[in-house]
Amino acid sequence: MINQRIVLSSRPQGVPVPENFRTDEAPVPELADGQVLLENLVFAIDPAVRGMMDDVKSYMPPVPIGGLIPAMVLGRVVKSRHPDFREGDFGRGFAGWERYSVLDPGGVAFENVRVADDLPLTVYMGAVGWSGITAYVGLKRYGELRAGDEVLVSAAAGAVGSVAGQVARLSGCRVVGTVGSEDKARIVTDLLGFDAAINYRAVDDLGAAIDRHFPEGIDLYFDNVGGATLDAVLPRMKAFGRIPVCGMIANYNNQSEPYRLRNIWQVLVNRITMRGFLAYEAGDMVHEAEDALGEWVRSGQLVATENVSTGIGSAPAAFIRLMSGETMGKTLVRVDDRVSTLADRGA
């Protein structure tokens, strides 16, 4: 079997360009004991991957030149030498932009996925997948979300932020989101039900705009971006406020010269709990999150937003759009049009 793959051709300088990627082919290796062969159906296109394209230290190793672009994938088991996985099962794990993946359930985050007939496959890579799970556990465990909280969510039209704001609202909180355009502001308020949105590109003073929406301060800030937004938020947190740090997308395209925070001392002044987290480390909450998110999507209480490209070769362009700030909701690539999407079902 020959595997089609997208690999790193050169390291991006700022926002990636098509020349940073190339298509490669390689034989699919034979399975060792304990391994599973997955035919990938959907890739998640995530901003965190941009950090792995630079040759800098992070929580994941950098991608070498010629290396596979990493991604969370959803696929069907076509061969298994592991007792917990059977042919035909759906599996989700960390692999890459490729048609087939050989995964070791004992060595990577890889799990069986309970796919419901009334939900499209793509939702298991978005609102009911790791984006939604990240939002859920980030708020509930690391943000210690409480009914009545005043909540601010950055990148509120994105894959995680769009779910985080809705989960907070469904949990009895008042929610405001920051976005980068008026179109995104309308979607966040009119479609997703946020109480308000701030277009940070349309205000002269982000801090003053936040003050207007939070005159008494912020209880919980769900941080997807870091940078200047985090700097503006820190002095506006209430005493003992909580900041679960999910991402730092403002710095991903310029990791060599990140934004320098001026207000970090407010963590002490306001006794803020600020914690970075990785959702898979809250493994005991995954099924709780999946069940809650699935029911909310099914009932229409939570709107899952996604933008889907088709074909492995469309992955670089989808990633470039994401890192240019042009996308809303979860950015996904389906291998072919046999994979159902929310749009296919009229959602």
Give a short overview.
The chain is an alpha/beta fold. It has helices spanning 48-52, 130-142, 159-170, 182-191, 206-213, 227-233, 249-252, 266-269, 286-299, 315-323; strands spanning 2-8, 21-27, 36-44, 70-80, 90-96, 100-103, 110-112, 150-153, 174-179, 196-199, 218-222, 237-245, 273-276, 306-310, 330-334.
Question: Explain this structure to me?
Answer:
With 347 residues, this protein is α/β, with parallel strands linked by helices. The protein has two domains: 2-125 and 304-345, Alpha-Beta Complex (Quinone Oxidoreductase, Chain A, domain 1); 130-280, Rossmann fold. Helices cover 25% and strands 26% of the residues. The strands form three sheets. Strands 3, 4, 5, 6, 7, 14 and 15 form a seven-stranded mixed sheet that branches. A six-stranded parallel sheet has the order 10-9-8-11-12-13, with helices on both faces. Strand 14 (306-310), helix 10 and strand 15 form a beta-alpha-beta unit. The longest helix has 14 residues, at 286-299. The protein starts with a strand and ends in a 13-residue tail after the last strand. InterPro entries: ADH-like_C, ADH_N_2, ER, GroES-like_sf, MDR_fam, NAD(P)-bd_dom_sf. It holds the Pfam family ADH_N_2. It comes from Tardibacter chloracetimidivorans.
